[in-house]
Amino acid sequence: MLVNRLVYHSRLSSQWIGGLASSQRRWAQVHDVRFLVTHQQTDKYTEKYRHKLQKKARQAGLQSVDELKAVYRDRIQDQRTRSATNATNDPPPPSPSAIPTGPASATNPYSFPPPQQYTAAVKPSVPAGLKPLSSYLDLSKTLALPPKEIEYIWRLRHASSPTSLCAVLPSPTYSRIRQAAYKHPQFILPLPRQGASGAEIHFLQWSFPAPHTSTVVFTHLAEYKLRGEFSQPHTTITMHTELEDQKGLVLMQGQVVEGRGISVEEARWLVLCLQRFYGEEEGRATTRGKLLSMFSEGDEAFRVEELVEEAEKLT
Residue 60 pLDDT more than 70? Predict the structure, then answer.
């Protein structure tokens, strides 16, 4: 008896489901999804701004929103066409193969982007905050002074600031440094810490943003590897070459940012290391020059321990 009831209910359920399915098929309709999306959005915005549209229609002497749409139909269509044309004319994003990557990226954990360089063919805009030498000295009067007096004035100009750095480089020395910077725009330098074993590593990066200006920024390597281009440098130095040809001098000035975990004396040490590593005479087979090349080429044989040993010789 129970089995017969189950069979009976099963037949009723099948008939009810079949009838529901046929009813759904009978009333089913096929819609163009694009039509639904665009027109539903249009209706939604029309309802949202109906009050303003009605006010606009009355101001124009029209009776309804539909009349207002009819009046502006050509203008709306023209704007849509113009917007579509602008969208199709946007330049495509660069392909991954077009993005330059340094040779060190595959092997060297210290792999960084190339520096910004000034060329005569393409003159970049001078970054905001970058001051030329003329903002510090009267160049016409300075050119009339002997080099020793220029050096004295330059050092005196920055003596009052406790967080400033300054130096005067002979032109031949800066020329060697500049040539090395073109070849090795990024490097790391160790900073020995008193009372602690080992050294703290700092990352430096050169740029040449203007014809007579080169800059170097120093950042904690740990922060640079964590934040990349968004990391905050603790020291920035700028070298001015306006007097290089006529006076044989390159004037350097810099600033140490307070609260970034570096003192002025430590920043001076990093600048000294930079001058020693980048100022080697060309053609001399030195350990410092070899380390620069190994770092730039991504040589797996590059050892930070060897870099620290070489830096300690400068003390």
Answer: no
Please, what's the b/e burial string for 216-247 (b: 16 or more CB within 10 A of its CB; e: otherwise)? bbbbbbebbeeeeeebebbbbbbbbbbbbeeb
Is residue 6 pLDDT above 60, yes or no?
no
C-alpha of 24 from chain center? 58
CA pair distance 30, 40, nearest whole angstrom: 16
Contacts of 260 (CB under 8 A, 6+ apart): 220, 232, 233, 234
Report the alpha-carbon distance of residue 245 to residue 69 in Å, rounded.
71
pLDDT top residue among 310 and 115 = 310
- Compute how many other C-beta atoms are within 10 angstroms of the C-beta atom of residue 281: 10
Torsion of CA 284, 287, 288, 290, to 10 degrees: 80
| pLDDT greater at residue 289 or residue 41 | 289
Residue type, position 152, single letter: Y
What's the rounded Cα separation, in Å, for the pair 71 and 206?
Answer: 61
User: In this structure, which amino acid lies at residue 174?
Assistant: Y
Helices (H), the chain: 2-27, 33-48, 50-59, 65-88, 139-142, 147-157, 171-183, 221-227, 244-247, 264-278, 287-297, 304-312
Q: How many CB atoms within 10 Å of residue 303?
A: 12
What is the pTM for the complete model shown? 0.61
**Spatial contact of 115 and 207, defined as CB atoms under 8 Å apart:** yes
Give the residue-averaged pLDDT of 286-293: 92
Helix (H), strand (E), coil (C) string for 4-31: HHHHHHHHHHHHHHHHHHHHHHHHCCCC
What is the arrangement of strands in the sheet containing 213-220, beginning at the earlier edge strand? 164-170, 249-256, 235-240, 213-220, 199-210, 186-192
Report residue 75 CA to chain centroid gap.
Answer: 41
Residues, the chain: 315
Beta carbons within 8 Å of 222's beta carbon, 6+ residues apart: 201
Show Cβ contacts of residue 248 under 8 Å, excluding neighbours closer than 6 positions. 147, 170, 171
